[in-house]
Design goal:
The chain contains 13 helices and twelve strands. The protein is an alpha+beta fold. The strands form two sheets. It has a six-stranded mixed beta sheet, sandwiched between helices. The chain has a six-stranded mixed beta sheet with strand order 3-4-9-10-11-12.
Length: 322
């Protein structure tokens, strides 16, 4: 894996855009007494598409570019985010992946972003991709409705081995434009995570890009969260260039890679969540994948396509009215 790349230092350069001109991005910046920066990008602050785009790039450790436009899914035209990276494994598994499970008293959250590389959360991923960061700055993204308690911020400082004034927290509720945009921007990461579950060595993934619709905001958390999942499961497309020895094996992996390989595929995520008694972690993990994946094996020149966009479920989830 590439050495000398610091996802936190690269992301901090992007963070400075938020800090220097918060009004432009619709965010609010505060500081703790110790100097930790708290960026509200979608709780009390209204945030927006530009904030969501920049937060996506920050979460990917400055190793990806994102863009937003309008795309058609059947008769549904909706904002769509596209991300691309020439260092997709570090950008996703080494930074963007929401793999830091956080609990402090009654406060619960899942952390993502480049700070994970300093805290090594979870450790096994960083061993697998052979990546570490030694930056003296740290940025963590929390999808939350509340500012975390001071004791948790102190834990972040300790876990990331940085000074308090060199730590930044970006906060955005799921029911915000920033929130839904940055979740849809996890399209490439979702596919890579599924491939790793299927036994693919992440270090064989060379380049990647992907797109997913940005769902309309819903004020209720469960519905907002369900729509962000459906955006990827039924509307997301991810493209990967891999260096793979065996086309036959890649064919077998491709068949299992899209969300349609799951036994629970075919209905809006909110229904799946209800059937699971709102226990997110009891849902079939095979469901969490892009709707469509495209693989280019650079060793053989072969191209593999698996899955497809499901416009009917996507429209139902997004609340389209006749």
């Amino acid at each position: 894996m590439s050495k000398g790349i610091s996802v936190n230092r690269l992301a901090w350069k992007l963070l400075e855009k938020l800090l220097d001109d918060p009004a432009l991005f619709g965010v609010e910046v505060d500081e703790t007494s110790d100097g930790t920066k708290i960026i509200d990008a979608g709780i009390e602050a209204h945030g927006g598409f530009q904030a969501g785009k920049l937060v996506t790039e920050i979460c990917m450790g400055g190793l990806a570019k994102a863009g937003i436009d309008i795309r058609s899914y059947g008769n549904l035209e909706i904002p769509t985010i596209c991300v691309r990276s020439d260092q997709p494994v570090i950008a996703t598994l080494g930074s963007q992946y929401a793999g830091w499970h956080i609990k402090e008293g009654g406060y619960f959250a899942i952390g993502s972003g480049p700070a994970r590389a300093l805290a090594k959360k979870p450790k096994e991923i960083f061993r697998q991709i052979d990546y570490e960061d030694d930056a003296d700055v740290a940025i963590i993204m929390l999808e939350t409705d509340h500012v975390p308690p001071a004791s948790l911020i102190e834990r972040f400082v300790s876990d990331c081995h940085v000074r308090a004034d060199r730590l930044a927290l970006i906060l955005a509720a799921t029911a915000s434009v920033t929130g839904v945009t940055q979740v849809a921007g996890r399209i490439v990461e979702t596919g890579i995570h599924k491939l790793v579950r299927l036994g693919v060595d992440p270090n064989t993934i060379l380049y990647a890009c992907g797109s997913a619709p940005i769902p309309p905001v819903h004020p209720q958390f469960n519905r907002a969260m369900a729509r962000t999942n459906d955006a990827i499961l039924y509307g997301g497309i991810a493209y990967y260039a891999l260096q793979f020895d065996d086309d036959a094996e890649l064919t077998r992996i491709a068949e299992k890679a899209p969300s349609s390989a799951s036994k629970t595929y075919g209905k809006p995520f909110l229904e799946t969540l209800k059937e699971a008694n709102y226990d997110f972690y009891s849902i079939d993990p095979d469901l969490f994948a892009p709707a469509k994946l495209i693989f280019n094996n650079v060793k053989t020149g072969s191209l593999f396509i698996a899955g497809d966009i499901n416009v009917d479920v996507l429209a139902e989830s997004m609340g389209v009215r006749d």
